[in-house]
């Protein structure tokens, strides 16, 4: 019985020795993240910071990128900075290729992980900034984006939201359809693409000028003859003015 106690005591001594050798006599503290989320969503060209900290103020914390390379200290578009017991990972103008899992590692080899999800921002394609249609014809003002998933689209005309629930305007996947366009539909239309993430949103917009083509009409409507007076040896101005799209040419 005595010998068995000694054997157990020796085994315990070896475990204590190994514990003191590898930890310095204290339990290794696991790094923690702030914000404390396993993944974050960010849009391209945004900037963000992730803080990694530990209760052991003397421990050095380092960061590694998704490709296992070390994140540089204090330099570069992506770098980390030491602030007290924290290691701050900074992203400036996030790019799509920055996505992936980043690892914060302490001297005692304890780790914390965070996954960066990068959302591509919408870019307009096949979207002319000027559009023309003949009066009383229907037309489609094109506005397309090259990002997936497709963002929520909305339209404004002269800074007022377009009512797509009526009979004049119809929302379509490739743009805004105008039925039986009239001169009242002339104006500046704003196409907006709205993207959302877990904690933010991104709005991209483009202005499109719509011109409704119509035949010339006299600006002053009258059935009476227009009389102009002049003086011998003097000058007078004869005005002939019409409204048209495109602008009218005049002959005398």
From TrEMBL:
Annotated protein name in UniProt: Ig-like domain-containing protein
Q: Does the keyword Nucleus apply?
A: no
* SMART domains xrefs: IG, IGc2
Which InterPro entries does UniProt cross-reference here?
Answer: Ig-like_dom, Ig-like_dom_sf, Ig-like_fold, Ig_I-set, Ig_sub, Ig_sub2, Neural/epithelial_adhesion
Organism lineage string: Eukaryota, Metazoa, Ecdysozoa, Arthropoda, Hexapoda
- Show the Gene3D superfamilies listed in the entry: Immunoglobulins
Query: Membrane-crossing residues?
Result: none
Q: Which SUPFAM superfamilies match?
A: Immunoglobulin (SSF48726)
List cellular component terms (GO).
neuron projection
| Top-level taxon | Eukaryota
User: What UniProt keywords apply to this chain's record, in alphabetical order?
Assistant: Disulfide bond, Immunoglobulin domain, Repeat, Signal
Per UniProt, residues of the Ig-like domain are 31-115, 122-209, 216-252
């Amino acid at each position: 019985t005595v010998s068995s106690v000694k054997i157990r005591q020796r085994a315990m001594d070896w475990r204590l020795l190994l514990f003191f050798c590898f930890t310095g006599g204290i339990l290794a503290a696991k790094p923690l993240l702030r914000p404390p989320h396993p993944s974050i969503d960010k849009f391209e060209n945004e900037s963000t910071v992730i803080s990694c900290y530990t209760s052991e103020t003397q421990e050095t914390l380092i960061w590694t990128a998704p490709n296992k390379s070390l994140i540089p200290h204090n330099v570069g578009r992506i770098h980390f900075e030491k602030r007290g017991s924290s290691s701050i990972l900074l992203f400036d103008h996030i790019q799509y290729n920055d996505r992936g899992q980043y690892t914060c590692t302490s001297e005692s080899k304890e780790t914390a992980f965070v996954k960066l999800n990068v959302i591509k921002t919408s870019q307009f394609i096949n979207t002319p900034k000027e559009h023309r249609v003949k009066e009383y014809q229907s037309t489609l003002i094109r506005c397309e984006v090259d990002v997936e998933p497709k963002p929520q689209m909305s339209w404004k005309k002269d800074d007022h939201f377009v009512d797509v629930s009526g009979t004049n305007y119809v929302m379509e996947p490739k743009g805004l359809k105008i039925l039986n366009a009239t001169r009242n539909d002339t104006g500046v239309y704003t196409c907006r693409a709205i993207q959302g993430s877990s904690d933010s949103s991104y709005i991209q917009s483009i202005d499109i000028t719509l011109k409704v083509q119509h035949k010339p009409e006299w600006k002053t409507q009258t059935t009476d003859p227009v009389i102009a007076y002049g003086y011998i040896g003097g000058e007078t101005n004869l005005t002939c003015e019409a409204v048209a799209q495109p602008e009218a040419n005049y002959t005398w």
